[in-house]
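Hey, I was hoping to borrow your eyes for a little while. A protein chain has come my way and I'm curious about its shape. Take your time with it, there's no hurry, and the full record follows here:
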Amino acid sequence: MSPDLDVAVIGAGIAGLTTAHELRRAGLEVRVFEERPYVGGRMHSFRHDGYTIDEGAEQISARGYRATWELLARLGVTAAEVPRIGRAIGVWRDGRAHPGVADPSAVLTGAGLSPRARADLARLLAWTARHRRPLGSEHPEHSPAGDRTLARFARRYHRDLHDYLLQPVASCFFGWDTTRSAAAPLLGLLHSVGPVSTWRTYHDGMDLLARRLAGDLDVATARPVREVVTEGDRVRLRTAGGTVTARAAVLCVPAPVAARLHVTAPEDERAHLTACTFTPTLKVSCLLDRPLAPASSTALYALLTPDAEDDTLSGILFDHAKHPGRAPAGKGLLTLMADPRRIPGLRGASERETTDLLVGAATRYVPGLREAARRHFVHRFTHGLPEVTPEALRGRASFQARPARPVEYAGDWVLLRPASEAAVRSGALAASRVLSRLRPAPTTARTARPAVPAPRSEVRETA
């Protein structure tokens, strides 16, 4: 009996949609299965009373996001739809915000670092410059930082570099505990994306890319997959709507979910899936009747609150400063990021309890927040971001060297880089592995669309 599909893609996040997009361009019949009623995964946005609320947190850079820019160009997304943020990132220390985090100017301005720590920051930047090629590669397991954790790597420098730079960046943007997560991926990512001045955002919500991709694909939302079983050279999916067979399947979900779904995963795959743990994330969106921001010498779009200063929040994003279209004119929108240490204790808390705790902590940095807030939304992800432990780093090379099989994987965890660029790249990689086994059937090849190269002018502008 012929299979129902060429390829079943499980998960309609950026990795899954990219995988499906590439396979469809190659002429295969592809269907995407998504358990939620919408696409985008951790890059989903929704609209409420004129506000555009991002459930995750993402920015892209003119550097380090080559695959993303090429995909955007192919989809007809212009640079104007991905404008520069044009605001700084600050860190809280000694009762005030210090701008300049993730910017080379911090060597001079401080960005919350003591004079001795600034000298060590210069040393760190010189070290990354000397090792720019391995740091910028897609193989973090080959990094000169080895498999050391962030906390261990930071011991060679002044303590401030950990407490007021590496730890707050890792905690706010990735939900990491620096004693557990490896230094190599973070150092490589920061080196690749360049200074904050080059960072951009999607003008109409962080789900712009997902919406553009999904518009041309067969996506079955609210269709959870319960089990994936390899049967010879084919795959059988047990879904909420019945059984589906395919010539191949790509699991574009967090590694722990993939391990649960793929019940016949070979041992060499299962070992790495188990090692690729994820951190939970929790955030509260605050819809304000006016724009608020902390006092700062430079306009901020993010304020990091280090563990040394705060045990409730890891940071605050000022979404109306990130892009004015996120909130109606004259209004404000903030995102309060919970400290990873607090999240386990809030697992059973109500939305009201969670909101009260985080808003109460944030009034220290944003006076008037409680009075200006008109509505709150709580966002929880059990599998927020890949934790990237040394164990996962050590196992990546052998996982990548496995032969192509009926079940493949995609997601930022595959590249051990917690960013949408990794999701895009992993989707393209998974598609190439599938295509190495399959060839388009004659009936589907006739409907395939030709590959559309990225416009040269667009790539030059944003590269």
